[in-house]
Design goal:
metal ion binding; two-stranded antiparallel ribbon; Rossmann fold; 8 strands; YlxH/NBP35; globular; single chain; ATP-dependent FeS chaperone activity; about 160 residues; 6-stranded mixed β-sheet
Length: about 160
């Protein structure tokens, strides 16, 4: 749709961070990768699609921030004094940051699609997508929604065991 093309038109590269299991450091890696790219002078966004465990707002100390609307959709939260990292997470849409999200697949999938189509990212060199643990519907929904935008690739986080 035109809205999808418009909101991601300024994003040069999309990178998924995923793993087959939880607790391996996906969110930490996503955050550190965003900070490293930012320090290298790149414009960076993070899309946190870990709907049941949105930890990136807390990692970046912006868990009390709110998302605002503009003509082209949701405005992401900008992180840091220099506002160098754009961040969108369900954590910003909950009444309390520690509220649990207990949703069935269709509702999760609709929100992921909305995150892809309705966030006004602007011009970014990299959009890092932090995914939930496992190989669930959320991963398929994310890849399907991003398919027209030619993903740069994926980082698969593993542990030695």
């Amino acid at each position: 749709t035109p809205a999808e093309r418009t909101n991601l038109a300024g994003v040069r590269h999309i990178l998924l961070v995923l793993s087959g299991k939880g607790g391996v450091g996906k969110s930490t890696l996503s955050t550190e990768l965003a900070l490293a790219l930012c320090n290298a002078g790149k414009r960076v966004g993070i899309l946190d699609v870990d709907l049941c465990g949105p930890s990136i707002p807390r990692m970046l100390r912006v868990q009390d921030s709110a998302v605002h609307q503009c003509d082209s959709g949701w405005v992401p939260v900008f992180v840091g004094q220099d506002k160098a990292i754009a961040l969108m997470s369900i954590g910003f849409l909950l009444e309390r940051p520690d509220d649990a999200v207990v949703w069935r697949g269709p509702k999760k999938n609709a929100l992921i699609k909305q995150f892809v189509t309705d966030v006004a990212w602007g011009d970014l060199d990299f959009l890092i997508v932090d995914t939930p643990p496992g190989t669930s519907d959320e991963h398929i929904s994310t890849v399907e929604a991003l398919r027209p935008h030619q993903l740069l690739g994926a980082v698969l986080v593993t542990t030695p065991q």
